[in-house]
């Protein structure tokens, strides 16, 4: 039998789950994240399952992934789904996040401006925009967890450069994040960065949709008035439950 050390006090600490995915255009590389506790994660997962299940009449199977790009453009299994229904998928997902009380994080970097800055400053190492944007998101997550006296676990969509992100994360925790601004060892983020396939995670699908809408709103001038109004409403709802929204510089 194991015994706790004398005088030890059992603490009940909530672990926040931070689900992260990316979206990018030529002039902006962005990450979106949804930060939720266990109950919020369970509730949102069930709600997204219900959203997809309601689309069976259009040939969308119950386990179909809500992947923002094909849903938005009506590609693949979504080609038979009417535009108004696809818009409702976006609206229902964003409304579910807002109602759940989960927190949204949105961070982005301009690739061109980052490259110019690194050239001007003659940095010995050139960091790609996805690494810088991800770092900025981790710094904000660490600060949010600290303010709530909680810890966080990061789950990101699978990507080819996942080992590099894990290595950089280990460096940040060992030596601190680069520079003096928001310098931190990410002590409120547990373990490492975990990667999972988004088609098996409704929460990663939420992060993908949030990132897609936000990045598109900053990089694309909608030509259709109705689409522009829909995007504006979606962004307003997303920002209403967001913290640490911004892009560099």
Topology:
Blueprint: E1 15-25, E2 28-36, H1 38-53, H2 68-73, H3 83-100, E3 103-109, H4 111-120, H5 129-147, E4 151-157, H6 162-175, E5 189-196, H7 202-219, H8 225-240, E6 242-248
Parallel strand pairs: 1-4, 3-6, 4-5
Antiparallel strand pairs: 1-2, 2-3
The number of helical segments is: 8
Shape: globular
Order of helices and strands: EEHHHEHHEHEHHE
Overall number of strands:
6
Helix content: 40-55%
Average pLDDT across residues?
94
Low-confidence segments:
none
Domain module tally: 1
Computed Rg: 19 Å
Largest sheet, described in full? 6 strands, mixed
CATH architecture: 2-Layer Sandwich
End-to-end separation in angstroms reads: 55 Å
The portion of residues forming beta strands comes to: 15-25%
CATH fold title:
Nucleotidyltransferase, domain 5
- In which order are the strands of the major sheet placed? 5-4-1-2-3-6
Multimerization status = single chain
Structural class: alpha/beta
State the CATH class: Alpha Beta
How would you sum up this structure, described in words?
The structure is a single chain. The protein is globular. The chain has 8 helices and 6 strands. The protein is α/β, with parallel strands linked by helices and about 250 residues long. It is about 45% helix and about 20% strand. It has a single domain (about 15-249), classed as Nucleotidyltransferase, domain 5, CATH 3.30.420. A 6-stranded mixed β-sheet has the order 5-4-1-2-3-6, with helices on both faces.
């Amino acid at each position: 039998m194991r015994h706790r050390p004398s005088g030890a006090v059992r603490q009940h600490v909530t672990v926040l789950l931070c689900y992260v995915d990316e979206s990018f255009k030529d002039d902006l590389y962005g990450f979106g994240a949804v930060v939720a506790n266990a109950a919020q994660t369970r509730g949102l997962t069930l709600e997204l399952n219900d959203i997809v299940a309601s689309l069976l009449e259009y040939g969308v199977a119950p386990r179909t992934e809500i992947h923002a790009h094909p849903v938005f453009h009506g590609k693949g299994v979504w080609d038979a789904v009417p535009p108004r229904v696809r818009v409702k998928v976006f609206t229902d997902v964003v409304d579910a996040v807002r109602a759940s009380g989960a927190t949204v994080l949105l961070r982005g970097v301009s690739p061109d401006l980052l490259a110019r800055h690194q050239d001007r400053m003659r940095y010995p190492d050139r960091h790609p925009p996805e690494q810088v944007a991800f770092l900025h998101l981790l710094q904000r997550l660490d600060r949010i967890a600290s303010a709530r006296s909680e810890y966080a676990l990061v789950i990101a969509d699978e990507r080819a450069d996942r080992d590099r992100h894990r290595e950089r994360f280990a460096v940040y925790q060992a030596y601190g994040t680069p520079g003096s601004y928001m310098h931190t060892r990410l002590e409120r983020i547990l373990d490492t960065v975990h990667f999972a396939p988004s088609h098996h995670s409704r929460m990663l699908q939420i992060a993908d949709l949030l990132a897609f809408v936000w990045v598109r709103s900053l990089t694309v001038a909608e030509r259709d008035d109705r689409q522009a109004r829909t995007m504006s409403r979606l962004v307003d709802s997303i920002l209403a439950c967001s913290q640490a929204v911004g892009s560099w510089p």
